[in-house]
């Protein structure tokens, strides 16, 4: 079988950072986000007919801020992925996380759909610089979320521009 890597984009954020050049839209309503997740899942399922020759060895859910999604929305995405593709035993499954988002419950739900790596960004350890960049979190939130991720079993945390 051929190896396949999947990238899923979640184009929503709490607020637009001052330096951001990514495709992301702040402050979208629940209905918009839900409709996007449903469309994404439908697209994944539509690809399943062509996925038979492939073994997924990497999944990356980036953004935007994927951890703005709810547990139920991640459960939908996980179901669509697992219904549509075959996965390598050692598949790396990453989700990007903004330190201002997520919760112990959400991180546990990520583990349940197979996420084994989180990429969380910290642009500075100085509050004034974070504020100047327009980030929605401070240094304390980063460490709190870092601890919550570790408690949920994520011990492979990577650096990320978001
Ligand atoms: S969190 Fe990342 S994607 Fe969202 S606005 Fe900030 S830099 Fe852009």
Order of strands, main sheet, comes to: 1-4-5-6-7
What share of residues are in beta strands? 25-35%
Shape: globular
From the coordinates shown, what is the CATH architecture? 3-Layer(aba) Sandwich
The CATH topology is Rossmann fold
Bound molecules: iron/sulfur cluster
Judged by helices, strands and strand pairing, the structural class is alpha/beta
* Low-pLDDT windows of residues: none
Order of helices and strands: EEEHEHEHEHHE
Whole-number count of domains: 1
Major sheet size, sense and barrel closure: 5 strands, parallel
Terminal-residue CA separation: 33 Å
Amount of helix: 25-40%
Arithmetic mean of pLDDT: 94
Description of the structure:
By secondary structure, this protein is an alpha/beta fold. The chain has one domain (2-127): Rossmann fold. Helix content is 37%, strand content 25%. The chain is built from 5 helices and 7 strands, in the order βββαβαβαβααβ. The protein has helices spanning 30-46, 71-84, 104-112, 127-133, 139-151, and strands at residues 2-10, 12-13, 25-26, 54-63, 86-97, 117-120, 157-158. The strands form 2 sheets. A 5-stranded parallel β-sheet has the order 1-4-5-6-7, with helices on one face. Strand 4 (54-63), helix 2 (71-84) and strand 5 form a beta-alpha-beta unit. Helix 1 (30-46) runs parallel beside helix 2 (71-84). The radius of gyration is 16 Å and the shape is globular. It starts with a strand and ends with a strand. The mean pLDDT is 94. Bound molecules: iron/sulfur cluster (SF4). The site of iron/sulfur cluster has 11 residues, from loops.
């Amino acid at each position: 079988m051929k190896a396949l890597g999947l990238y899923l984009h979640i184009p929503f954020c709490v607020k637009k950072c001052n330096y951001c050049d990514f495709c992301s839209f702040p402050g979208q309503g629940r209905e918009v986000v839900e409709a996007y997740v449903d469309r994404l899942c439908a697209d994944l399922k539509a690809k399943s007919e062509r996925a038979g020759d492939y073994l997924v060895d990497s999944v990356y859910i980036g953004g935007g801020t994927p951890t703005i999604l709810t547990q139920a929305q991640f459960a939908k995405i996980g179901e669509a992925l697992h219904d549509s593709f075959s996965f390598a035993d050692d598949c790396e499954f990453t989700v990007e996380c903004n330190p201002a988002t997520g919760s112990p419950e959400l991180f546990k739900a990520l583990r349940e759909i197979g996420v084994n790596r989180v990429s969380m960004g910290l642009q500075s350890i100085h509050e004034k610089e974070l504020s100047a960049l327009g980030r929605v979190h401070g240094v304390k939130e980063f460490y709190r979320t870092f601890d919550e991720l570790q408690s949920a079993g994520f011990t492979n945390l990577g650096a990320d521009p978001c």
